Amino acid sequence: MPQRLGIAVIGAGMAGRAHASAWRAAPTVGSGELPDLELVSICDLAGDLAAATAARYGFSRHDTDWQDIVDAPDIDIVSVVVANSLHKEIVEALLAAGKHVLCEKPLTDTVDDARAMVAAAEKSDSIARLGFTYRRAPGLAAIRDFIQDGTLGEVHHVNAWYWTDYACSPTAPMSWRYKGELGSGALADVGSHLTDTVEFLAGPISSVSGGRFHTAITERPLPLGHVVGHDHVEVSDEFEPVGNDDYAGFGVEFPTGSGILQVSRIAAGHPNSLGVEVFCANGSASFDFRFPGQIVLNQSIDGHAATGLTTIQLGPEHPYIADGLAMAAPGVGVGQNDGFTFQARAFLDEVAGRPEAESLPRCAQFSEGLHALEVRDAVIASATDNGSAKEVAA
Ligand SMILES: NC(=O)c1ccc[n+]([C@@H]2O[C@H](COP(=O)([O-])OP(=O)(O)OC[C@H]3O[C@@H](n4cnc5c(N)ncnc54)[C@H](O)[C@@H]3O)[C@@H](O)[C@H]2O)c1
Question: CB–CB of 131/158 below 8 Å?
């Protein structure tokens, strides 16, 4: 095990702050020894934001050029939390310099770039992992346990959605999120989480059909200040066209069944509702991120509803909560930010060389990020061919 690990975050925006906070909290969750951790630098083009984020989360310094993170001898681990199109260049440079990399989802913008990143990760001796944080939601992990231990059994069909409303307002300023072709909008942004969630529960998606997109707001005003995440800032009267999707819907086939998935960034009144219902051999279950501390189970016996809908408050007997929450009692609640902390701890366990059996479940591989983009491309192909079925590239 290394004696010391220096940590940096590139990108101090919405998710960058979640990474900064997670590295700070990671040693407080999970169990077992870790190397000494040093929170070294927060890097962002916006120097004031980088400095403020470093100060808030206890990092020793800030940088404005990611190349300085690549070159820094006191940094071993780096979160890459900038716009998707920037991931490849930064990740490849970090891996070449021997840094361990935790890259945000989606892996990048295109399947070709994702393949190159998988190759760079395979060539490197460093750990390269992807931030599919929703796998760390205790409710989703609990449903997966119920599927795998036979309580629910194999998944026959799925209904899944990810409703967000960050783009509802026509005055929400233009940002990197609205640039690119159909499929790079809601589908890449929140859809990458949703396809991963469905695959986490039901297994790999082999084909998609019925692909469709809708863009309701076709131009957006340019911001007059720095935009972080979904924030609104003062805008100019100059507009730029929106190229990508506000909404996407599609059907999926997975090894034991099929389902319907929909994602939106204009689902008015739903700031952050990822939800999934799984219908399985021995019952059904559902989870909705509006109520992250609970799941709903409905077990059947011989095909008849036996228990009815039962709401289960998550507690220490469910994944992540014991050893994961400071107050690990039923009903205390768990939130999206906790997922980033569990993820950071899992990454540290792996870098420290702790066996998987003694650590939190490993983070997603880059190859899973490539697969997610192949699913996305199949949706795009389906949508541009009148919704016909398309295989997901192997
Ligand atoms: N896992 C999750 O739940 C989750 C949530 C939100 C975002 N994300 C992902 O995180 C990434 C960032 O999203 P966000 O919402 O935080 O974006 P953001 O726009 O809020 O922040 C990005 C930051 O990167 C900075 N930046 C841009 N170019 C840079 C450069 N060359 N060097 C250094 N900094 C630079 C910007 O100044 C900005 O502050 C995306 O890949 C997104 O998909 C993941």
Answer: no
CA distance 364 to 136: 11
Of 63, 52, 48, give the one whose Cα is nearest residue 6. 63
User: What residue ranges define each of the domains in the chain, with the CATH number in brackets?
Assistant: 4-134 (3.40.50.720), 138-334+371-383 (3.30.360.10)
- What's at 235, amino acid-wise? V
Cβ of 12 below 6 Å from ligand 1? yes
The CA-based diameter of the chain, rounded to the nearest angstrom, is 63
Q: Is the C-beta atom of 13 inside 6 A of ligand 1? A: yes
pLDDT in tens, 75-116: 999 999 999 999 999 999 999 999 999 999 999 999 999 999
Distance (Å, rounded) from C-alpha 31 to C-alpha 43? 30
Structure tokens at 394: 């192997």
Q: What is the pLDDT of residue 307?
A: 82
- Pick from 327, 297, 293, 332: nearest CA to 313: 293
Compute the distance from residue 303 Cα to the ligand 1 centre, in Å. 47
Ligand 1 pocket: which of 43, 82, 103, 341 to mutate (most atoms within 8 A of CB): 82
pTM of the model: 0.96
Q: How far is the CA of 27 from the centre of ligand 1 (A)?
A: 24
CA of 139 to the centre of ligand 1 (A): 26
